[in-house]
Amino acid sequence: MEQLFETMSAKETFALGKKMAESAKPGEVYCLNGDLGVGKTVFTQGFAAGLGITEPVNSPTFTIVQIYEEGRLPFYHFDVYRIADVEEMYEIGCEEYFFGEGVCLIEWASLIEEILPEQVCRITIEKSPERGFDYRSIRIESDNKMSLLEGTE
């Protein structure tokens, strides 16, 4: 199943992330991909807000994973951009996160494709400068029963 969204501002990208998280369920894994500067962190901040997290959310580039437990579900925010070897993911216990009671969102997930669970939701954010500086195309694909954005097709 696939949905395509267009946002015209960081505020709209944040809102889309927030709406998506409002229906997230325990054990779901969201894979977020896109070039540097497309708005992955803004989307993630919205996603965290949709889970009820109020503390600041930033990319955990040097720690690989940041854990937030104040929302309605634990939120595991990964940024694997600087990962040198996929084995590093096993060293931090990725399977506990992937198959746990929380929700995982993984920035740069394409870099660890071979260890991702079979069922994930893929989110790809792209810029299109000819459509405007703040324009983003956001494609959401789910190959399982994970709920996409209800009522927004």
Record the SSE blueprint.
Elements: E1 2-7, H1 10-21, E2 29-33, H2 40-50, E3 65-68, E4 75-79, H3 87-91, H4 94-98, E5 103-107, E6 121-127, E7 136-142
Parallel strand pairs: 2-5, 2-6, 4-5
Antiparallel strand pairs: 1-7, 3-4, 6-7
Short key terms for the protein model shown above:
153 residues; alpha/beta; Rossmann fold
**CATH H-level superfamily:** P-loop containing nucleotide triphosphate hydrolases
Strand content: 25-35%
Q: From the 3D structure, determine the CATH topology.
A: Rossmann fold
CATH class: Alpha Beta
Which structural class do you get from the secondary structure elements? Answer: alpha/beta
CATH architecture: 3-Layer(aba) Sandwich
Structural summary, described in words:
The protein is an alpha/beta fold and 153 residues long. It has a single domain (2-98, 109-136), classed as P-loop containing nucleotide triphosphate hydrolases (Rossmann fold), CATH 3.40.50. The chain is 22% helix and 25% strand. The chain has four helices and seven strands. The protein has helices at 10-21, 40-50, 87-91, 94-98; strands at residues 2-7, 29-33, 65-68, 75-79, 103-107, 121-127, 136-142. Strands 1-7-6-2-5-4-3 form a seven-stranded mixed sheet, covered by helices on one side. α1 packs across α2. The chain is globular, with a radius of gyration of 14 Å. It starts with a strand and ends in an 11-residue tail after the last strand. The mean pLDDT is 90.
